[in-house]
Amino acid sequence: LGRVFTMFLIVTSIGIAGYAISTVAGYVVEGEFNRIFRGRRMRKEIDKLDQHIILCGAGRVGREIATEFYKTLTPFVIVEPRAEVLQEIPFLNEIPYLEADASRDQVLKEAGVEKAAGLVAALHDDQSNLFLVLSARALNPKLRIIARLADDANEKKLLRAGASAVVHPEAIGGLRMASMMIRPEVVTFLDQMLRVTGRTLRVEELRVPEGLRGKSLAELNLVEATGLLTVALKARGRGGYEFNPPPSTELEEGDVLIVMGTPQQLRQARSLGS
Q: Fewer C-beta within 10 Å: the chain N or C terminus?
């Protein structure tokens, strides 16, 4: 009986050990294969992009930025080294992303920094954002860079490093809380405008192309053509805005119209005059 038990134990132990080894090996090989395959697929998607935005950092602030880009159909790439942070983005499978360190020049090149239109530095501290801004500005001098600011004392440093503008999330949050206290109806109106059922309504900017030079707002008739509502006009070479411009206003190439509508309506309007 002892020999039979020992033989049974040996066979069972070998079987369990073999199964465990094959399971672990399969998990490692499959995981590595999936990682390589996913990386290649992401690089192919990024290579197709042009004039996109690179979002560096997908934490609490970065996730809100990504959500706004996603809702407004803005082409963008997320660069975030932490897999658990990326998994918190509900639409992750619909957008290109890199699970990597954005402070490395090679990673920025893989994200298409040389042909990108903008970069958002939303890392966790000013030092990391400062280094990122320096690297991105060196790789693309024409890049528009928006940097997250944690300490007001570092604002000038980020601007000197090459940031186009800096944003202090805590200051914005404080302003929002104050506005909700002293002008609640205005805040409620804006919130409802941003959350129209089934639509993404935003205030956007529309740069006048060469094909619309000399046309008036009445001839353009954005409301009938696209559904966009014209709020203001910034003429090229002027610093101020003309709010609610009259229909007789003639447009020049490079003028910027501030309009209200959906991303789909904005795309339609940008195709006018092309």
A: N
Q: Could you report the per-residue pLDDT of 223-262, keeping only the tens digit for each?
A: 888 888 888 998 877 778 888 888 888 888 888 999 988 8
SS3 122: coil
Contact 76, 52 (CB under 8 A): yes
Beta-carbon contacts of residue 263 (< 8 Å; ≥ 6 apart) = 71, 72, 73, 74, 200, 202, 204
At 173, list the tokens.
Answer: 């949050």
Q: How far apart are CA 207 and CA 15, in angstroms?
A: 70
CA 38 – CA 172 distance, rounded (Å) = 37
Distance separating the N- and C-terminal Cα atoms of the chain: 90
Coil/strand/helix, residue 121: strand
- With H, G, I as helix, E, B as strand and everything else as coil, classify residue 196: coil
- Beta carbons within 8 Å of 97's beta carbon, 6+ residues apart: 42, 58, 77, 78, 79, 80, 86
Q: What are phi and psi for residue 261, nearest 5 degrees? A: 175, -165
For helices 184-194 and 169-182, angle between their N-to-C axes, nearest 10 degrees: 120
> CA-CA distance, 14 to 101, in Å (whole number)?
43
How do residues 207-219 score in pLDDT, each as one tens digit?
Answer: 888 888 888 888 8
Provide the Cα torsion 57, 60, 66, 71; round to 10°: 180
